[in-house]
Inverse folding.
């Protein structure tokens, strides 16, 4: 069978123009062949006698198959070649048999169906499929769930399937989509891997995407920021509960604070009198435009930064059983978000800022944190973190250290309290300052000295500039 | 005619070293015609009329009709003749009025200019330069306004350049003529009147240029969209976002190294392309970044392209169809999150 | 009749060809005829692939026209160009190796049957876009004219190309600029499967070319002597500086358009009638009649041709394949 075109694989002999015994010459048309395109004449390229026709009319054979034997003029007949298996009539595939060799390797269900089955605790590999090529459809999964068969019984990991592992006779299909794969940008995913943060511990920003800024800074598995939850839903269709992301966040907090639990911590408290500092602050604020006014939190933060300069043992990291003091005062600031949750951006070189500069930095960083616009620079490693309950009402806070830091400073609400000044009793604004210290790095006396340093700075107006 | 030729004196109104994009192109043609007798200019109305966009104004008078040749309205024939002349040892510069008309010569550009070197096993080279106008913005509607550079950039065997600055308009013809390969040079109609400095710095045909540094987001663009991207970068700066603007300059080959280096710094990509989005050059840039800088991306790449509509006539519709500064700013903001 | 310039592979034609130039024409046609018939066999055996268009029946044009050109003249051809390439002197082994897809092919295996190139012989290729070669021929002639080279570019194309816009654009431009182009239409009466009368409102193709203000006339394309003579006349006109000429070679292909063509659009009686005009048979009979050829010299001629063909087959078969690593070479010019 000659090849008459690159797209011709086979042809059917529809006519023989010669018979055994006929003399043929180069260029003679000896047969007609039907291809997918048309009927085409076949010519021979030799002179000789047709000895035998190998392919009967009506038979389809592949290109390259001998069609006939032509003997040279006067030659003795050559042995007949073995008959060539014809392509037709080929057994038609029986209905219902697997169509393709590769069918077995096809996935048995689409990813959505697979997830649906997983949520119901079913294994698609064990389900009968009624879809094309025997694939398992949504309906198949639902049907299987209602009969209670083929349940996944080998589940040992119950963390995410406890409530669905055992199929109920009448399945309660969760109304919402299955827990979505967290949306993490490639760069954030890479950063997290480099910093040793597992992807499941990452929490998204305001738009539901984990970006680089949402990856905790620091080394190893040591987040310097607490996660924040998804903010108030902007799409009313989002079901308020369950909130998988928020639940995951709690789990991450749990994991981190559990790690913090391994730190032997001590606590020191001190009530700081704020009468004179706040008076002076009011004076300063009177001269400032409203937009630049300084809040008491900034004053406390500023005092903490300067105190860290005076008592450097609490500003640093505990690495390999050693205190590595920080070279600058990078202050982590716990920012509570309006929708709940926390962020801990860093104010770098906070001790070098004047009070008003620090106020500006604080205002910026809080605004960015609350609008989900933190920058990479906001994620710098902090050497010390401050949490300030502000106006939330708690009088004191005993926080836990963010490893690998070695201390955490907490401020309660500013409250007016009876206050002894010499032998006189008065009412003054006060704040309870607390210090949580890593006992491996320092002792309580250092913590106490630190709180004293804060007090000193607060009352030293020269420190304000 | 005398009024036309008197306007031909280039650059007289501007201080030395400063000229318009149009004048820069003309200067580069004049330089080429003076410096190499193999160079000739050919196209519709390039001679007596002075060029549809007045780029060749005055060249006929200076160099004569042998070297500044008016052609019939036969795009296929004169582009093909340019190919043949290049095969025959000349250095033709063919002008096609607009990229839309180049489609009448697409057979010659694709089936001959781009293939002869390969099809002949390296025996042939086609040192041809084809200049053409591209882009919208002048209410010329759907047959004079399209941006098909990206189409041409699809074709191996061609080199595609898009000068976006006056300096590039001045400096790109010489290397294009020096190239042994066919070079298509796209001049955005909106740039002809723009002014800028020129110097004698040679321009590489395949290197992108960082037109403005920044670290928050990379804006990749070319040709007529460079001013838009720069204006967007300006607006973003006011909002605290530092955008880096990369001008591709060459669409084939693509200087992906410059693009990738920028994205690896900023982690965010916005491509600004006047072509249609589907199957666009913007798609190519975004795909390459996704392929090669995936793990550096902190946001999905954004594309700001023309609306998928033949460019309409009415001014407000045309404006809405083209990428605007606000579109670029919004896209950049989305990447920053 | 003047002696055609022999540009075939063999630089020194046999002595008998010097005595009778018709022998060169005959030998050239037999070479092409027997080469192409061998190609059919090689194609059927899957040695040659892709599209393959044969000029069996049209050999007179190839040897008469191409043979009349000077070595400095240029040739732009079509996808049915085996005959043109052989007549131009592209070695048969390089042509066949190209069709085998070998690195030793005249286009390094990147062109195949439809894209034979040999720049050293100013053979600017088989162009597989109908009409696509005409503008290039105009440009080659423009370059020669601008550089002061007194040479001609011969541009071959079929009757189908006359319907293309590029035909009209190119003839107009060449005539307008008085460029030295010899436009040669091989009118084999079919644009693939569409007959001339179903394709052209005016089937007198020379008349259409004449409308562009150039000398144009039809030629018996089945007679190599007539073709050669007409070509000489046209070349003389062009070389005088008066601009292009157009020759309509009325010819016929005996085989189908391409290999995979059932040839349903014409009846066999028509083919048979044209076969009576077989250019090889006609010239051979004429030479035998007037004593220019005897049986022994014919046999010698055929044997020599067959020997060349088998050597070409062996060489093509032995030719190396281009390494796949070199796939993307020659997309852009390489530094020499």
């Amino acid at each position: 069978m000659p090849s008459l075109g690159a797209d011709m694989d086979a042809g059917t002999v529809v006519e023989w123009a010669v018979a055994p015994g006929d003399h043929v010459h180069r260029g003679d048309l000896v047969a007609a062949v039907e291809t997918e395109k048309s009927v085409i004449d076949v010519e021979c390229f030799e002179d000789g006698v047709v000895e035998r026709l190998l392919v009967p009319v009506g038979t389809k054979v592949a290109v390259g198959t001998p069609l006939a034997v032509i003997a040279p003029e006067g030659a003795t007949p050559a042995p007949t070649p073995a008959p060539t298996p014809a392509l037709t009539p080929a057994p038609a595939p029986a209905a219902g048999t697997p169509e393709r060799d590769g069918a077995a390797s096809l996935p048995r269900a689409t990813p959505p169906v697979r997830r649906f089955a997983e949520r119901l605790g079913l294994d698609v590999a064990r389900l009968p499929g009624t879809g094309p090529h025997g694939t398992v459809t949504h309906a198949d999964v639902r049907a299987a769930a209602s009969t209670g068969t083929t349940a996944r019984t080998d589940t040992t990991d119950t963390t995410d399937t406890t409530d669905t592992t055992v199929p109920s006779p009448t399945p309660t299909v969760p109304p919402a989509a299955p827990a979505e794969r967290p949306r993490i940008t490639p760069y954030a995913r890479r950063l997290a891997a480099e910093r040793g943060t597992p992807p499941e511990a990452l929490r998204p920003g305001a738009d539901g995407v984990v970006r680089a800024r949402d990856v905790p800074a620091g080394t190893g598995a040591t987040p310097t920021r607490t996660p924040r939850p998804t903010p108030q839903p902007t799409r009313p269709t989002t079901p308020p509960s369950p909130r998988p992301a928020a639940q995951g966040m709690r789990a991450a907090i749990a994991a981190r604070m559990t790690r913090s639990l391994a730190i032997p911590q001590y606590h020191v408290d001190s009530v700081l009198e704020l009468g004179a500092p706040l008076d002076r602050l009011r004076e300063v604020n009177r001269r400032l435009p409203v937009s630049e006014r300084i809040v008491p939190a900034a004053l406390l933060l500023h005092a903490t930064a300067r105190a860290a300069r005076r008592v450097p043992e609490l500003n640093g990291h505990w690495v390999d059983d050693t205190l590595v003091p920080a070279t600058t005062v990078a202050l982590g600031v716990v920012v509570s978000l309006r929708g709940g949750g926390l962020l801990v951006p860093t104010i770098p070189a906070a001790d070098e800022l004047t009070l008003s500069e620090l106020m500006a930095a604080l205002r910026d960083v809080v605004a960015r944190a609350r609008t989900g616009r933190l920058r990479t620079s906001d994620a710098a490693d902090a050497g010390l973190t401050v949490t300030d309950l502000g106006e939330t009402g708690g009088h004191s806070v005993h926080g836990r250290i963010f490893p690998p830091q070695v201390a955490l400073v907490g401020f309660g609400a500013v409250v007016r309290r009876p206050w002894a000044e010499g032998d006189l009793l008065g009412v003054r604004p006060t704040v309870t300052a607390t210090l949580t210290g890593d006992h491996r790095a320092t002792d309580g006396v250092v913590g106490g000295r630190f709180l004293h340093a804060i007090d000193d700075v607060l009352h030293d107006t020269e420190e304000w500039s | 005619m005398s009024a036309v030729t008197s306007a031909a004196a280039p650059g007289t109104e501007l201080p030395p070293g400063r000229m318009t994009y149009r004048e820069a192109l003309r200067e580069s043609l004049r330089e080429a015609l003076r410096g190499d007798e193999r160079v000739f200019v050919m196209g519709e109305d390039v001679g007596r009329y002075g060029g549809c966009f007045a780029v060749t104004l005055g060249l006929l008078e200076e160099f004569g009709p042998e070297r500044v040749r008016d052609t019939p309205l036969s795009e296929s024939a004169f582009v093909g003749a340019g190919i043949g002349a290049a095969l025959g040892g000349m250095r033709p510069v063919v002008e096609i009025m607009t990229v839309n008309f180049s489609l009448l010569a697409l057979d010659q550009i694709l089936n001959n200019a781009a293939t002869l070197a390969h099809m002949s096993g390296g025996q042939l080279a086609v040192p041809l330069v084809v200049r053409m106008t591209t882009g919208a913005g002048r209410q010329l509607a759907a047959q004079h306004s399209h941006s098909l550079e990206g189409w041409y950039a699809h074709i191996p065997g061609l080199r595609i350049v898009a000068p976006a600055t006056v300096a590039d308009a001045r400096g790109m013809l010489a290397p294009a003529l020096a190239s042994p390969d066919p070079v298509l040079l796209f001049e955005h109609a909106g740039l002809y009147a723009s002014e800028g400095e020129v110097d004698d710095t040679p321009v590489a045909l395949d290197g992108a240029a960082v037109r403005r540094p920044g670290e928050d987001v990379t804006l990749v663009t070319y040709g007529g969209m460079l001013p838009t991207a720069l204006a967007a970068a300006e607006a973003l700066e006011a909002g605290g976002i530092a955008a880096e603007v990369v001008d591709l300059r060459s669409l084939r080959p693509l200087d992906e190294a410059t693009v990738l280096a920028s994205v690896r710094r900023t982690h965010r990509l916005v491509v600004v392309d006047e072509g249609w989005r589907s199957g666009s050059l913007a798609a190519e840039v975004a795909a390459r970044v996704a392929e090669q800088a995936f793990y550096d991306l902190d946001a999905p790449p954004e594309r700001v392209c023309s609306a998928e509509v033949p460019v309409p006539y009415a001014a407000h519709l045309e404006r809405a169809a083209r990428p605007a500064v606000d579109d670029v700013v919004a896209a950049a903001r989305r990447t920053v999150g | 009749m003047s002696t055609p310039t022999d540009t075939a592979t063999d630089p020194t034609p046999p002595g008998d060809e010097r005595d009778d130039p018709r022998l060169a024409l005959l030998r050239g046609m037999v070479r092409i005829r027997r080469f192409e018939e061998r190609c059919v066999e090689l194609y059927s055996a899957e040695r040659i692939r892709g599209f393959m268009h044969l000029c069996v029946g049209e050999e007179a044009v190839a040897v008469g026209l191409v043979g009349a050109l000077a070595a400095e003249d240029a040739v732009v051809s079509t996808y049915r160009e085996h005959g043109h390439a052989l007549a131009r002197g592209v070695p048969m082994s390089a042509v066949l190796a190209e069709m085998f897809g070998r690195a030793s092919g005249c286009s390094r295996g990147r062109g195949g049957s439809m894209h034979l190139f040999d720049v050293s012989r100013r053979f600017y290729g088989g162009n597989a876009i109908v009409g696509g070669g005409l503008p290039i021929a105009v440009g080659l002639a423009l370059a020669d004219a601008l550089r002061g080279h007194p040479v001609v570019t011969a541009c071959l194309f079929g009757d189908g190309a006359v319907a293309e816009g590029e035909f009209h654009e190119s003839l107009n431009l060449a005539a307008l600029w008085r460029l030295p182009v010899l436009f040669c239409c091989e009118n084999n009466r079919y644009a693939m499967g569409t007959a001339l009368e179903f394709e052209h409102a005016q089937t007198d193709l020379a008349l259409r070319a004449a409308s562009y203000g150039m000398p144009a006339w039809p030629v018996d394309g089945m007679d190599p002597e007539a073709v050669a003579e007409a070509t000489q006349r046209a070349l003389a006109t062009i070389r005088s500086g008066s601009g292009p000429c157009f020759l309509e070679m009325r010819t016929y292909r005996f085989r189908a358009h391409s290999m995979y063509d059932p040839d349903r659009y014409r009846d066999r009686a028509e083919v048979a009638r044209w076969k009576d005009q077989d250019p090889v048979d006609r010239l051979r009979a004429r030479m035998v009649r007037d004593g220019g050829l005897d049986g022994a010299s014919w046999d010698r001629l055929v044997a020599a041709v067959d020997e060349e063909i088998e050597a070409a087959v062996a060489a093509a078969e032995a030719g190396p394949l281009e390494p796949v690593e070199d796939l993307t070479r020659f997309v852009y010019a390489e530094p020499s």
